[in-house]
Amino acid sequence: MSLNNKQIRFLRAQAHSLKPVVLIGGAGLTDNVINEINQTLDDHELIKVRVNADDREDKKEMIDSIARQTESEHVQSIGHIGIFYRQNKKNPRIQLPR
Questions:
Q1: How remote is the C-alpha of 12 from its chain's centroid?
Q2: Where are the domains of the chain?
Q3: Phi, psi (5° rounding) for residue 50?
């Protein structure tokens, strides 16, 4: 599912007040971190993840890897924070504009 510009703006506005719920530290992107992100996406649909990487390329690779492994949409990155969205198939909470 790819998001259009209107949906991305909507999700960015929704995520503005959110705090990062998953922190990726020195151990990097492990299977446990991916499982935690998957569980959090199932519960909330829209989350912020803090990626503590010194190099921009490492940070970008981690964010791309999170989106790919969790089958979520990368909405936005600002600094060390990535915003991800994945609709809950059974119980959707966020109604996206068309």
A1: 11
A2: 5-85
A3: -95, 120
| Predicted TM-score (pTM) of this structure | 0.95
Write down the number of H helices and E strands in the chain.
3, 4
List, in sequence order, every beta strand (DSSP E) within the chain.
Answer: 22-24, 46-51, 73-78, 81-85
Distance of CA 23 to the CA centre of its chain: 11
Domain 5-85 is of which CATH architecture? 2-Layer Sandwich (3.30)
Which residues have a Cβ under 8 Å from the Cβ of 11 and sit 6 or more positions away? 3, 46, 75, 76, 83, 85, 94, 96
- Mean pLDDT per 10-residue interval, the chain, length 98 residues: 93 97 91 96 97 92 96 96 96 94
Output the six-digit token pair for 70: 């969790």
